[in-house]
Amino acid sequence: MGITKKGLVLGTTAVALSTVAVTGAGIHLSQSQALIQTGPKETIDEVWQIINHQYVDTSFNNTDWTKVRQEYVNNGSYGNKEDAYKAIREMLGKLEDPYTRFMNPEEFQNMRIDTSGELTGVGIQIAKDEETDRLIVISPIEDTPAFEAGILAQDLIVKIDGTDTKGMDVNDAVKLIRGERGSQVTLTISRGGKESDFDITRERIEIHPVRASIRDTDVGKIGYIRLTTFNEHAAKDMQQAIKEHEKEGVVGYVLDLRSNPGGLLYSSINIARMWLDEGTIVSTVDRKGISDRESARNKALTNKPLVVLVNEGSASASEILSGALQDNKRATLLGTKTFGKGLVQSVRPLGDGSGLAVTIAKYLTPSGRDINKEGIPPDVIVELSDQQLEELYSGDRSKLGTEEDPQFSKALDILDRDIQAQRSSASQAAK
After folding, report:
1. How many whole angstroms separate alpha carbon 364 and alpha carbon 147?
2. Distance from CA of residue 11 to its chain's centroid?
C-alpha cells in the first residue's frame, strides 16, 4: 500500500467524532506534508484522485466514480474554498462510507491532536448541548489544568472570556479556549443553576490513555488496566503498567476496553504482542486482495489469566486487540457485543492544509472473521441496566473496576476459575 502502519487510523464511533478536544499544537503524522498553493478545483481533483487510486472497493460501493469526476471536477465551478469543501463532502457522500471523510484545516488539526496524545490547552472535551444551545463539558482530562481547576463532566460553559456561548459552534469555542502556553482563559460555568468563573492557565498536556491500579480481591492481587484510546502513548503506557503489575505479583488481569473508540493500528498491534507469545494478531486486505498479516513475536510480558471487558462502544483498534486475544484463546471477553468497525483508514494531508481519511483496507481477526457492522460477541455476556451505566460512567467514574461494577465483579469470578486451573496445570507439570 505504500503507507506505513504508523499512519493508519482505525477510526472512532460516530459519537466520538462529534466531540472536540480543546487543545492546541499540531503533531506530525507519518506522512510528510508539503503545503502548496492550490485552487478550489485542484483540491477537489486531489481528493478524487486519492479515492480513485486507494479506496478499498474498486467498484466504489457501486458508484460510477468517473461520472463523479465529470460532475464535480470537469463541470463544477467554485468561487472559494468553502464551495469546494461542500462539493467534496457531497462527492464523498456518494460512497456511503462514514469513515471516508473530508476535514477542513481546523478539523484536520484537531484529528492530528487526538491521535498524537500531545496538546496545548486546558484539557477538556466539549460538545454542543442541544437542550440549552450551549457548550457542555463531556469530561475534563485527568491531571490537566481544567481537571485541577475543578471543571466537571456535564458543566455548561456559559461564557469564554466574557463571550456568551449561546448558539456558538464547537469549533469557534475551541478557537477561543486555545492559546499560548502560560496564558489564561476564563470559563464561566453553570452548575446546578449557579454560575461561577474558573480562571485556567493553558499548559502543554500529554494524554496518557492508560489508567492502571491493583485491586486487592478475594482472588488475590488483580491488575486492572483501563485503556481509553489507542494514541501514540498507548503502547508505552501499557508496557509500563504490565511490568509494574508483574513486579507487584498480581495473579491475573482485567483489561478494560469499554467505550474505547479506537485509534492507531500499530498501537493495537504492539499492545497485542504484550499479551501474546505466538499467533496471528490481525490481517489487513487491500483493494487488490493483498493480505498483510501481523503476528506475535514471542515477547509477551505475562502469561497470567486475562479477562477483557468490552461493550458496544469498543470499536476498531479495540476490536483488533479483542479479536486477537479471543481467537488465540488468550483471554475471556466479557460484556456486550462490540461496535463492529472493521475498516482501516489512511489519513492524508491535502495541499491546502485540509485532510482526507480514506478507507484503504479491511481487517480480519486471526480466525478470518470480518466483523465490520457485525461486532465481536463476548464469550460471557453481562449487560448493564441504564441505571448501572449512569452510575458507572457519569462523574468521576471511580466505580469502574470495583466491586460495584457488575462486569468487573463477574470478571473476578472468571479469573478465580482460570487462576486455579493454571495453578493446577503448573502443579501437574512439576510432578
Report:
1. 39
2. 7
The domain defined by 210-345+352-424 carries CATH number 3.90.226.10: yes
CB 212 within 8 A of CB 245: yes
| Contact yes or no for 365/328 (Cβ under 8 A) | no
DSSP H helical segments within 96-205, as ranges? 105-116, 145-149, 170-177
What cell does 174 get? 475551541
- Active-site residue 337, yes or no? no
The pLDDT tens digits of the residues spanning 195-224 come to 999 999 999 877 789 999 999 999 999 999
- Global confidence as pTM: 0.78
Q: Which of 237, 327, 405, 416 is catalytic?
A: 327
Q: Where in the chain is the domain with CATH 3.30.750.44?
A: 5-112
For position 118, what pLDDT does the model report? 67
CATH architecture under which domain 127-205 falls: Roll (2.30)
d(CA 300, CA 106) in angstroms, rounded, equals 40
Residue of 128, 159, 304, 341 with catalytic role? 341
Q: Which of 116, 139, 259, 316 is catalytic?
A: 316
Q: Do 219 and 251 contact (CB within 8 A), yes or no?
A: yes
Q: Is 316 a catalytic residue?
A: yes
CA–CA distance, 127 with 124 (Å, rounded to integer)? 10
Identify the burial level of 131 via C-beta atoms within 10 angstroms of its C-beta, where 0-12 means exposed, 13-18 middle and 19 or more buried: exposed
List, for the chain, all residue ranges whose pLDDT scores fall below the cut of 70: 1-38, 117-119, 139, 394-396, 430-431
Sign of CA dihedral 149, 155, 160, 162: negative
CATH class label, 5-112: alpha beta
CATH 2.30.42.10 range(s) for the chain read 127-205
